[in-house]
């Protein structure tokens, strides 16, 4: 169980990104975080693996205090938390294979990995991860030769290399064609069914309804809603996104079953 | 234009414009008035400063136009500025033409052809030949006082025997030279080598080869005059030293070989390319650490680093603005003539240029992959290896190759000021009017630069 307690983040320039946010995530949940751009979703996700250090508040993973972890403890914690990004964040000039293998750096021998030497079993693991997202044939391509949807699948394969217990997904489909959204989210849903906890920020309400097991909503860094997806009706929606907001659907096509 | 407010008295406006622009200001167009004032003063100033009263018609014309313009403007109608602009340009170009002394008659087609024709026959290769050579020593000048007398000016080499008479001579004195045992009935070039290895032709007015034919027994005897310049590099011209007189016979055989100047061209080009390669390598090594100090994104964290950033950037900008040729002049003074001076000049200029290009690469790094690799639990060394290096090495390499390209071109000219390489030979050939060798050097430079250009472009294409 992941427990976020009174999490607050103030950036050096004075921006208050999170205010006293608290919630729990049970193992195996598909938690979706919604809110406008700038509401603190990305900051919240990055606080969980401490890519951003929170100003105050605690994050416990079972009994482990993530916020108090030393640098080497933190690396061990990060190994088990995969992350998927809106902009994919692949090294564009490197091959798909190298990008996927870099997900394993937390486990790898530091010296051999600096020389770029990987044991055969790790390469096998990378191929297997690429097979799971259906692009094993692209292993030797340069990352920037792939389409957006394929790059995001490489991003997922990289996260899989960590054998993660939690996957943080920061708007994983916001840079993709709406029609590709379901394809990417279905991979995350599959991983969730395989036992990984998924914490994912999303924009489109229909995707939230389709994939989330639970939802929290942020507005100006404050948690304004926590509950089941079906509880978000039009009134709640307006409350979260403001009076001017219009609901947009990711796709008018029904997601393939 | 606000034409309601500018209706003023046309006569007054015209009168005010006796001081250029004042009438326009009065009529409500301050900028137009100001521009007219400045332009009139400037053009009148140019005419007066350079003392060209013949061009006075232009400022006077602009002045008159200005009064007319103020008058019209007060009546609500601006005049086209075409006439004063035209007059201004005519003055600027007219005086400029006279100052530079453009004289088309000075460009003589005949002289151009006299230079171009030998250049079109580059002195790079010659017919292969067999050389039959003999030489004799000779002492110049004659020993004086109680110094021992000059040794005999004669020499035997197998069948061949050469001698000069007398055994010693002063500058411009006449000497009888003789050689035997050479090829019969063959042209023989006779030339002088000084004690420090300079060659001097003996024919014409000391500027052409002296060629004499051997008789049917392979002997020749002729008179020469000791060249006027044989002691020119001698600190003590009274000191008797041994020089040589050479007798060369050549017989053409099949095929071609590099000519004497051709060998210098090859040597110069090799020197230039090596100089460029070493300069690029050294400057890349130096530029990498400097570029990190000149990258804004790395240096914006604290006031101290910002100061370092500004200082480094300023030094780089100033250094880069000085041409390598000028830096080479400074280094020739410091290190002496030769490729080392040229190398240092190229290094200084290249470090400044490369550090700026590298720092822009670093500034352009995508932080996303770095964040992603950090999130996997990687150590910082691994983050640098997998997140940073793949992003900067290909563009660094591409810029370095590009720089090598530029340095090869620059290394061909730093020799003009004594910095070594092909330019060093080139400038001397130009001065002694050896246009065939100049043509050969041009050809070699063109071939090398174009070839490198092509391959470096291909290589860079693959990297980025």
Fold and architecture overview:
The complex is a heterodimer of chains A (about 260) and B (about 475). Chain A has about 260 residues and is of the alpha/beta class. Chain A has two domains: about 1-80 and about 200-245, P-loop containing nucleotide triphosphate hydrolases (Rossmann fold); about 80-165, P-loop containing nucleotide triphosphate hydrolases (Rossmann fold), CATH 3.40.50. In chain A, about 35% of the residues lie in helices and about 25% in strands. Chain A is built from nine helices and ten strands. Chain A has helices at about 40-50, 70-80, 95-100, 110-115, 120-130, 150-160, 180-195, 205-210, 235-240; strands at about 1-10, 15-25, 30-35, 55-60, 65, 80-85, 165-170, 195-200, 215-220, 220-225. Chain A has a six-stranded mixed β-sheet with strand order 6-7-8-3-9-10, sandwiched between helices. In chain A, helix 5 (about 120-130) crosses helix 6 (about 150-160) and helix 6 (about 150-160) packs parallel to helix 7. The radius of gyration of chain A is 18 Å and the shape is globular. The model of chain A is unreliable at about 250-255 (pLDDT under 50). Chain B has about 475 residues and is an alpha+beta fold. Chain B folds into three domains: about 10-100, no CATH class; about 125-260, Sandwich (Immunoglobulin-like), CATH 2.60.40; about 260-464, MetI-like fold (Orthogonal Bundle). Chain B has 15 helices and nine strands. Chain B has helices spanning about 10-15, 20-25, 30-50, 55-75, 80-100, 110-120, 260-295, 295-300, 305-320, 325-335, 340-365, 365-375, 380-415, 420-430, 435-464; strands spanning about 125-140, 155, 160-165, 175-180, 185-195, 200, 210-215, 220-225, 240-260. In chain B, helix 6 packs across helix 15 and helix 13 packs antiparallel against helix 15 (about 435-464). The longest helix of chain B is centred in the C-terminal third of the chain and has 35 residues, at about 380-415. Chain B starts with 9 loop residues before the first helix and ends with a helix. Mean pLDDT of chain B is about 90; it is low at about 1-5. At the A-B interface, helix 2, strand 6 and helix 4 of A face helix 12 and helix 13 of B.
């Amino acid at each position: 169980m992941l427990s976020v307690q009174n999490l607050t983040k103030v950036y050096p320039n004075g921006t208050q990104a999170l205010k006293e946010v608290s919630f729990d995530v049970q193992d195996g949940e598909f938690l979706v975080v919604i809110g406008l751009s700038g509401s603190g979703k990305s900051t919240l996700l990055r606080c969980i693996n401490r890519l951003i250090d929170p100003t105050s508040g605690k994050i416990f993973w079972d009994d482990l205090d993530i916020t108090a972890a030393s640098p080497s403890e933190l690396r061990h914690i990060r190994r088990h938390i995969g992350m998927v990004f809106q902009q994919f964040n692949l090294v564009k000039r490197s091959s798909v294979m190298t990008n996927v293998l870099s997900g394993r750096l937390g486990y790898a021998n530091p010296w051999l990995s600096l020389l770029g030497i990987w044991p055969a079993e790790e390469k096998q693991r990378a191929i297997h991860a690429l097979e799971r997202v259906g692009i094993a044939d692209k292993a030797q391509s340069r990352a920037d030769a792939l389409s957006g949807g394929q790059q995001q699948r490489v991003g997922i394969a990289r996260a899989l290399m960590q054998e993660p217990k939690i996957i943080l997904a920061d708007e994983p489909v916001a840079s993709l064609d709406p029609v590709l959204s379901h394809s990417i989210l279905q991979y995350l849903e599959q991983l969730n069914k395989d036992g990984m906890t998924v914490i994912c920020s999303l924009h489109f309400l229909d995707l939230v309804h389709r994939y989330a097991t639970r939802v929290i909503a942020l507005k100006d860094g404050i948690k304004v809603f926590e509950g089941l997806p079906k509880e978000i009706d039009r009134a709640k929606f307006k409350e979260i996104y403001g009076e001017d907001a219009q609901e947009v659907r990711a796709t008018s096509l029904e997601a393939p079953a | 234009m606000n034409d309601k407010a500018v209706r003023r008295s046309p006569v007054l406006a015209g009168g005010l414009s006796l001081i250029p622009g004042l009438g326009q200001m009065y009529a409500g167009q301050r900028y137009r008035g100001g521009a007219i004032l400045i332009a009139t003063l400037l053009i009148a100033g140019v005419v007066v400063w350079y003392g060209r009263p013949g061009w006075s018609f232009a400022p006077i014309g602009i002045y008159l136009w200005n009064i007319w313009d103020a008058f019209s403007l007060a009546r609500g109608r601006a005049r086209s500025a075409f006439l004063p602009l035209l007059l201004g340009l005519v003055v600027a170009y007219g005086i400029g033409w006279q100052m530079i002394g453009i004289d088309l008659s000075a460009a003589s087609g005949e002289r151009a052809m006299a230079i171009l024709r030998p250049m079109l026959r580059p002195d790079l290769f010659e017919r292969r030949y067999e050389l039959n050579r003999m030489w004799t020593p000779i002492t110049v000048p004659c020993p004086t006082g109680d110094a021992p007398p000059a040794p005999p000016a004669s020499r035997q080499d197998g069948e061949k025997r050469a001698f000069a008479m007398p055994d010693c001579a002063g500058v411009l004195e006449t000497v009888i030279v003789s050689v035997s045992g050479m090829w019969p009935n063959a042209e023989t070039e006779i030339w002088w080598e000084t004690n420090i290895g300079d060659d001097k032709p003996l024919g014409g007015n000391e500027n052409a080869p002296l060629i004499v034919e051997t008789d049917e027994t392979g002997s020749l005897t002729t008179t020469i005059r000791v060249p006027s310049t044989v002691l020119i590099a001698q600190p003590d011209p009274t000191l008797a030293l041994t020089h040589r007189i050479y007798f060369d016979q050549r017989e053409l055989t099949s095929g071609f070989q590099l000519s004497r100047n051709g060998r210098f061209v090859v040597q110069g080009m090799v020197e230039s390319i090596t100089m460029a390669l070493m300069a690029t390598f050294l400057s890349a090594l130096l530029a990498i650490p400097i570029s990190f100090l000149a990258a804004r994104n790395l240096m914006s964290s604290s006031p101290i680093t910002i100061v370092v950033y500004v200082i480094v950037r300023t030094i780089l900008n100033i250094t880069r603005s000085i041409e390598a040729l000028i830096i080479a002049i400074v280094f020739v003074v410091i290190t002496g003539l030769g490729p080392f001076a040229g190398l240092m000049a190229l290094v200084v200029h290249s470090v400044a240029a490369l550090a700026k290009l590298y720092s822009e690469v670093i500034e352009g790094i995508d932080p996303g992959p770095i964040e992603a690799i950090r999130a996997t639990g990687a150590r910082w060394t691994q983050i640098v290896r997998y997140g940073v290096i793949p992003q900067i090495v290909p563009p660094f390499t591409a810029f370095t190759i590009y720089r090598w390209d530029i340095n090869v071109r620059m290394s061909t000219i730093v020799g003009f000021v004594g910095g070594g390489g092909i330019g060093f030979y080139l400038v001397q050939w130009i001065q002694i009017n050896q246009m065939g060798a100049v043509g050969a050097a041009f050809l070699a430079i063109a071939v090398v630069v174009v070839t490198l250009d092509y391959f470096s472009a291909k290589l860079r294409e693959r990297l980025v």
